[in-house]
Amino acid sequence: MTTASEPRLAWDYTDVAHAYLKRPAYAPDAIDAILRNAALGRGARACDVGAGTGKLSLPLLERGLEVVAVEPNDAMRRLGRAQTAHHAAVRWQRGYAEATGLPDGSCDAVGFGSSFNVVDAAAAVRESARILRPGGWVFCLWNHRRLDDALQAAIEDLIRAYVPGFTHGARRADPSAALRAGSWFGDIRALEAAVVHVVSREDFAAAWRSHLTLRRQAGDALEDVLVAIDGLLEKHAAPLLRVPYVTRAWLARKRRR
User: Fold this and answer.
1) Spatial distance between the Cα atoms of 245 and 147, rounded to a whole number of angstroms
2) How far apart are CA 142 and CA 63, in angstroms?
3) What digits encode the pLDDT tens for the residues 119-129?
4) Can you tell me whether residue 57 is helix, strand or coil?
5) Radius of gyration of the chain, Cα coordinates, nearest whole angstrom
6) Chain centroid to CA 253
7) pLDDT tens digits for 156-165?
8) Residue 3: inside a domain
9) Is residue 184 in some structural domain?
10) In a domain, 55, yes or no
């Protein structure tokens, strides 16, 4: 339950936490490029904000970083702990982008894996600056569906047939202006890398239930959309899919004052 001292959550993933597990991993080349640009090596300490089920924490841990995974949703946090249980260098805790609970200057990096679009950006940038050491980096990244792919394009057309005016929202927008706000950060860099999600037809369909951008805009039409996606996949897709995405990321360095 949210208390008076906790930020209000605008997006609740409780009912779709298990479906979130089916979503694609980030492109390994994008993760490597982030770490290379930010000069983050083994033993560096990163805070994964809105860590969810560990989609960002896992590749950071696999590359030798220490991770504090901050996640406000109890269901997502339980799954994230389970997904990362084989790593000793992770600590999960309840917290928020706007109030992580971490000490001042305690992190080398702060990452937002598909979460920067669902928080109070100004407050999240301010909190990131507080917990970062001077010269530390904040970064945010998303997986974007490749709409030049035939299957993805067909699904996009289907969604728009049920939800006229459907938009992808802030998750496809450039966050550079938000990262610059407050003058804590500079040296903003953008990068991207391709990734192919190899997934069963059933799991790909299930993952759509965790798509809260669609859920919020579809309203009462959501179940019709999901049934239509299921039908499209059964009719046109192979049992095992190779679905292309592009991971897009932005980084910004904390100024040394």
Assistant:
1) 9
2) 19
3) 999 999 999 99
4) helix
5) 18
6) 20
7) 999 999 999 9
8) no
9) yes
10) yes
DSSP structure class, residue 99: B
Percent of the chain with pLDDT over 70: 96
Question: What average pLDDT does this structure show over 227-233?
Answer: 94
**One-letter identity of residue 67:** V
Task: Take residue 228 and report the two structure tokens written for it.
Answer: 């239509």
Inter-residue long-range contacts of 18-22, CB under 8 Å, 24+ positions, other chains counted? 18/79, 19/206, 19/207, 19/208, 19/209, 19/210, 20/52, 20/53, 20/76, 20/79, 20/207, 20/210, 21/53, 21/79, 21/83, 22/199, 22/203, 22/204, 22/206, 22/207, 22/210
Domain ranges, residue 71:
14-254
b/e sequence 210-239, b meaning 16+ C-beta within 10 Å: bbbbbbebbeeebeebbebbeebbeeebee
For the chain, the straight-line distance linking the first and the last C-alpha, in angstroms and rounded, comes to: 38
Residue 138: its pLDDT value, please? 98
Q: How far apart are CA 143 and CA 164, in angstroms?
A: 23
pLDDT of residue 8: 58
pLDDT at 5 over 60: no
Q: Which residue has the higher pLDDT, 7 or 64?
A: 64
The total number of structural domains in the chain stands at: 1
Q: Which residues in 169-198 are b (16+ Cβ under 10 Å) and which e? A: eebeeebeebbeeeebbeebbebebebebe
Whether the pLDDT of residue 109 is over 80: the answer is yes
The H or E element that residue 34 is part of is: helix 28-37
CA angle, residues 9, 147, 222, in degrees to nearest 5: 45
The pLDDT of 27-43, averaged and rounded, is 98
Query: What is the pLDDT confidence band of residue 4, given thresholds at 50, 70 and 90?
Result: very low
CATH assignment at residue 112: 3.40.50.150
In a domain, 8, yes or no: no
